[in-house]
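Researcher: Here's the sequence for the chain we discussed earlier.
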Amino acid sequence: MRRVTVYDSRSRETRLLAPLVPPRVGLYVCGLTPYAPAHIGHGRTFVVFDVVARALRRWGYRVFYVQNVTNLDDKLIARAAEEGVDPLALADRHFASYLRTMERLGVRSVNYYPFATDFMPEILAQVGVLLDRGFAYRASDGSVYFEVAKFPRYGALSRQKVGELRPGARVEVDTRKRAPEDFVLWKAATPGEPSWESPWGPGRPGWHIEDTAMTGRLLGPRYDLHGAAIDLIFPHHEAEVAQSEAATGEVPLANYWMHAGLLLLSGEKMSKSIGNVAALEATIDRVGPGVLRLYYLNANYRSPLDFDPDRSLGESTEAYARLRQPFDRISELLDREGADRPGAGPPGALGDDAASLVDRLDATLAEDFNTRESIALLFGWTKRLAELSGGLDAIAGSGLERLRAPYDWAREVLGLFDEPTAPGADAGGEVVEVALAARARARSRGDFAESDRIRDELRAAGIEVEDHAGRSRWRRIGPE
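Model: Thanks. This is the structure I predict for it:
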């Protein structure tokens, strides 16, 4: 396994990656709340961690990558009410769209997308443990809150001082709380909203509790690496730390915390809730996934990235076209004539330099996932090939394969030069299975209109669904 360093947001230091049980790496990334289509800010975060998972796997680590889906929260409930649909059905619909978008963007490294509502037993168990251990209390309406004062390490990750938090500033004002900084673990039921039975009365989970319920079951009380966008450090990640460490006694929850910088639009955080977003799907339609991945990765992942729709995408489009010119020509020659294509060998030490460059690319990226410097090395290689006397056409197929090695590395690790499924095309069996899972959830809650809608959409996409003995099977069908 290659030596890898990671900038740890908790210690504010770059540390050597040392998995708890090598070569296994448990990676958890806070995922989407699918109340609206994904925007390009989401795209940046998920491309960053796609590269993390790709690189670690290349270097011999066995990565189990979990990215959660918050399929029920206040925003989802509000948006569903506006549209007159079931919030769980709305979440399923947007998540299916999100997965198709990720496939187009080349984000295929996630092993498991757990849904919050599928972990209700674990959520209830963890809330119960926190109550039993005195870290939580029950309010008069049946809601359950975590008492921050009982957890002295609260604020250590974000460097927030609890005593300086002002009600209404960064914490919710709630008269049922003992202190403003306390946060909800279990929300008492509200008429017209989804709810589940619990020992404290009907209700639903708070935002933070789903993550630690999931990681406790899937990755254990301690795991290697937690990732997300930087805006989730406070209060979300502070709450995760407090919940899990208080419930299990295992410290720390995650050995390393990686936080990706925000993508800004005209200097402001991009947010679906305030409407200043650039839709991810439309941006891929406009410039293609390779251009967008290059834009994301040609910057330090921890730095904020200011997005200008015309300038940013225009510059990246030109850069990507320049970067891939030799790759496209080599691929064209090899596809046409194969590795046995006659010709001369690479001039001088160019073939050996290609292999050395691949080693250097690995070493560069292994220093806190330095994609910016890796891309600079690729541009340098592109310049050398563009200046090659006699061009690439005179080189034999075996030599071309050697010269393409740095681009093959970029395809494997950075996800460049790998244009996936076109818009509207079938994205493969995984997307179908997600749609069928959404249909099964709709049927289980008696929402047969939503179940029929999903079936009809699948049929329009060339997928026939058959229900038999309580299970759904699918097959591809031709055009009618």
